[in-house]
Amino acid sequence: MKKLPIICHHLSKTYQQGSVTIPALIDVDLEIPKGDFVCLSGPSGSGKTTLLNIISGLDKPTEGQIEIDGERVDKMSQSALADMRLHKIGFVFQAYNLIPVLNAQENVEFVMQLQGVSSEERAKKARAILKEVGLEGLEKRRPGDLSGGQQQRVAVARAIVSEPSLILADEPTANLDSHTAESLMQLLRTMNEEHRVTFLFSTHDKLVMDYSKRLIKLHDGRIQSDEG
């Protein structure tokens, strides 16, 4: 039996704008096995980002339930959600979200520092993962001294270094040229295959869709198709 890091059961989410109820997700059922490499696609307003936010615990469903590694995310307290995000989920954002005053190695170490990992172990792991993502020799450079592609690789290293169960990536190639984007996706596929980390992307980028092992198309808050 496959281990399922993510199970969504009858998920729905609505928002209120004055007296108007706006559906963002409608009765979404979804299972994502460990090690999957999944892309959520669809036009703006289809529910991609809402679904990512609910999976990460940044938003709550109006109806339905969600489990990560067998734990009910929709029932967790705020402190438990913060702990889950710290230890089980890595994030890769389109804007990189690196800390400008920290160098590449310090940015990668940041999550491990929050986890209470010793300084010696943090440094060792950070250097190793930066080498793995092709940034050996650039450990002491701050984000402003790195290209967009290099900054995104630092963000990937930071997301994966603590060995989370799941990495959520929201439009990870949006600010990259096509060559850099393809290089990034090759790197993420390698990370997925070698580390067995589960990836879930939200994207408009056909390149990301082509690299994904499974493509889930959303439209008006519903799963329109699920292929792969």
TrEMBL record:
<dbReference type="GO" id="GO:0022857">
    <property type="term" value="F:transmembrane transporter activity"/>
</dbReference>
<dbReference type="Pfam" id="PF00005">
    <property type="entry name" value="ABC_tran"/>
</dbReference>
<dbReference type="GO" id="GO:1902495">
    <property type="term" value="C:transmembrane transporter complex"/>
</dbReference>
<dbReference type="InterPro" id="IPR003439">
    <property type="entry name" value="ABC_transporter-like_ATP-bd"/>
</dbReference>
<keyword id="KW-0813">Transport</keyword>
<dbReference type="InterPro" id="IPR027417">
    <property type="entry name" value="P-loop_NTPase"/>
</dbReference>
<feature type="domain" description="ABC transporter">
    <location>
        <begin position="6"/>
        <end position="228"/>
    </location>
</feature>
<dbReference type="InterPro" id="IPR017871">
    <property type="entry name" value="ABC_transporter-like_CS"/>
</dbReference>
<dbReference type="InterPro" id="IPR017911">
    <property type="entry name" value="MacB-like_ATP-bd"/>
</dbReference>
<dbReference type="GO" id="GO:0005524">
    <property type="term" value="F:ATP binding"/>
</dbReference>
<protein>
    <submittedName>
        <fullName>ABC transporter, ATP-binding protein</fullName>
    </submittedName>
</protein>
<dbReference type="InterPro" id="IPR015854">
    <property type="entry name" value="ABC_transpr_LolD-like"/>
</dbReference>
<keyword id="KW-0547">Nucleotide-binding</keyword>
<dbReference type="GO" id="GO:0016887">
    <property type="term" value="F:ATP hydrolysis activity"/>
</dbReference>
<comment type="similarity">
    <text>Belongs to the ABC transporter superfamily. Macrolide exporter (TC 3.A.1.122) family.</text>
</comment>
<dbReference type="GO" id="GO:0005886">
    <property type="term" value="C:plasma membrane"/>
</dbReference>
<dbReference type="InterPro" id="IPR003593">
    <property type="entry name" value="AAA+_ATPase"/>
</dbReference>
<keyword id="KW-0067">ATP-binding</keyword>
